[in-house]
Backbone:
């Protein structure tokens, strides 16, 4: 097999690998599926650009749901569930901290 064919096969293999990695990162961050083609065509450049971009619309994506912050907190004094944005209990006035 000629050496140029080996290099061509190796290049296609690496392009597909970068495309798949870029696609996985874009899915985790919440971007469209077109990032596979960016990764396929530009390789590590697309991956670097994607890693440096913020999450869309300022939303944070969570890979593991257990690391997601709670949406409510329970008052230790009266046991009422309160929204996470409130720092005081709506029933008894106790502080969250």
Residues:
């Amino acid at each position: 097999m000629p050496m140029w064919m080996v290099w061509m096969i190796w290049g296609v293999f690496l392009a597909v690998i970068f495309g798949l990695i870029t696609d996985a990162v874009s899915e985790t961050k919440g971007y469209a599926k077109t990032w596979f083609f960016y990764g396929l065509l530009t390789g590590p450049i697309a991956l670097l650009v994607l890693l440096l971009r913020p999450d869309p619309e300022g939303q944070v994506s969570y890979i593991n749901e257990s690391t997601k912050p709670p949406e409510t907190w329970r008052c230790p004094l009266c046991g009422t569930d309160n929204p996470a944005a409130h720092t005081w209990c709506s029933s008894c006035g106790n502080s969250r901290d």
